[in-house]
Amino acid sequence: MNVFVRTFIGGLNLGAIYALIALGYSMVYGIAKMLNFAHGDVIMIGAYAGIVCVSSLGLPPLLAIFLSCIICAILGMLIETLAYKPLRKASSLAVLITAIGVSYLLQNIALLFFGSQQKAYPSIGDFGSIQIAGVKVDGISILTIVVTAVIMIALTLFVNKTKIGKAMKATSEDRGAAELMGISSDKTILLTFAIGSFLAAIASAFYGATFIYVKPTTGSMPGIKAFTAAVFGGIGSLPGAMLGGLLIGMIEQFSQVYISTLWSDAITFAVLIIVLLVKPSGLLGKTVVEKV
Prior knowledge:
Layout: H1 2-32, H2 39-56, H3 61-84, H4 92-114, E1 119-120, E2 129-132, E3 135-138, H5 139-161, H6 163-173, H7 175-180, H8 185-211, E4 213-214, H9 220-233, H10 238-258, H11 264-278
């Protein structure tokens, strides 16, 4: 029983991190209709920014996290402006190749400045622990889950209730019509990339607190799994990204404990394939009917 509870909490913690990253993927795809495959590497940059702020500048951890969020938001806007904006009318293949190029560029910049050796992410604070069903659970795990849930709810309310959020939805539905109504699609998409990258930096703090070590390729696999989570839940759906992230984390964690660590990734992606065969739009995604 203790093993099950520990695995369950670990899966929720891991899934919450994936969900935070997946929220950024879903926002960018939902509004800009682009898959930002460099999103995982923004997480890596956020982690290194946190390390520099604490270790080199001596800043408090919470201030370091906030600054890393600002840095990543600016980075997200630069990526959109310099790499993706010129490609909005280009083919999906051109966008994919550009995204891969941006990903490798960020990894090599990190390699140039920080080297290939992994670095320890600083502690973000002592949050104690609590007992759940006889199992001692770190406070940081509970905080990760709670913060992710709060962010998902806040983002949903932001998109559905605010003027800027409604502009995002209008841009997503019909960019041309939104422009005719006075909505700047350029500014809306730029803000979307900034918010997605801001969330990536928050995810990097929880990732660093959970896995401790960071290296230039740190963001690759979490980025792929978060994209998987976004597709699993229904890409473009914020609740779907949350659900997909939690489910992917749970599947991965239970596979590692009860089957094999060697098979956990294969099982995770196999489940994704099965779900998409049954429901191609994802668990909470909307099926779009195209009229001919």
